[in-house]
Amino acid sequence: MGFFDFRKGKKGASLGSPVKGECVPIQEVADPTFADEVLGKGAALKPADGRVYAPVDGKISTLFPTGHAVGIVSSDGAEILIHVGLDTVQLKGRHFKVAVQADQQVKKGDLLLEADLEEIRAAGYDTVIPVILCNSDEFSDIKCKTEGSVEVGEEVISYRK
Predict the structure, then answer these.
(1) Model confidence over 81-96: pLDDT tens digits?
(2) Closest CA relative to residue 144, chosen from 15, 42, 39, 62
(3) Is residue 95 flagged as an active site residue?
(4) pTM score, two decimals?
(5) pLDDT at 2
(6) Among the options 83, 134, 144, 145, which is catalytic?
């Protein structure tokens, strides 16, 4: 659920967790592109399983052929990147099964992809999942959850237009 600030008259929105797991500070992710928020502000999740769901209603804007990452533009214009693991592009699609297509409309909670986390870890990759609000500069009052366990769909990022 979004929030509404009557003082400023600005409606807020939020991103749900795309996975069941544990929140960690994005600054602790072992990739400076994410940790230094080069791509935008975000949250990081240590997934409990490999099923990744849509965090919002929107449209699939980018679907990497390797299946390791997906971009969504929400109905309110938020550009979201969900990146499964670090350097997992090197796996060339092994251990990933994509459930959506580019330009597909999705609803919050729709399955986006599945990743075999055990195989990805066995191949030597970190399975942390950064969830990035790529156009952070278009929003204000961005808050990202940095600790605690979350269920799929539970708010991990809130923001205002």
Answers:
(1) 999 999 999 999 999 9
(2) 42
(3) no
(4) 0.92
(5) 42
(6) 83
